[in-house]
TrEMBL record:
This is Uncharacterized protein.
Length: 138
């Protein structure tokens, strides 16, 4: 692989299909604004052993993909993915807000706040009520 191919591969986000024809966006531009993830992959870092990166696209931005290696954010996104999978849902049911905060030691790091979209929250409540009624009837 020549340098042109290597540059293209790196800029495309490691060959993920959903990153093709998109440029890498600046993660900091997502801070403190509500976004909805369209596609996401959690990948092992190519540069740091034992570390993971989240690569994702967001609704309303067809030009960019985003990548973060922040341990806290990646762990939170993995937890959310697990919950979505368990309930048979996709990322479009969530609104996320990425934030930068300071630790007690003064270090900055990123976190994600998640919120179910109101219509989904109502559907999940109905589903839970129906399941509870079904269990009572047994």
């Amino acid at each position: 692989m020549g340098i042109y191919e290597a540059v293209k591969k790196v800029n495309e986000g490691g060959g993920l299909e959903f990153t093709k024809n998109r440029e890498k966006g600046e993660f900091d531009t997502l801070l403190n604004r509500p976004v909805t993830i369209e596609n996401i992959a959690i990948l092992d870092s190519r540069f740091y052993e034992g570390k993971e990166n989240a690569v994702f696209t967001i609704e309303g931005d067809a030009a960019h993909f985003y990548r973060t290696g922040g341990e806290t954010v990646v762990a939170q996104l993995k937890d959310l993915q697990e919950g979505l999978d368990e309930d048979g849902l996709d990322w479009d049911v969530l609104t996320l807000t990425f934030q930068q905060i300071r630790s007690k030691q003064g270090r900055r790091y990123y976190v994600v706040k998640a919120q179910l979209k109101p219509e989904i929250e109502a559907q999940l409540a109905e589903r839970a009520n129906a399941a509870a009624e079904e269990n009572i009837a047994l």
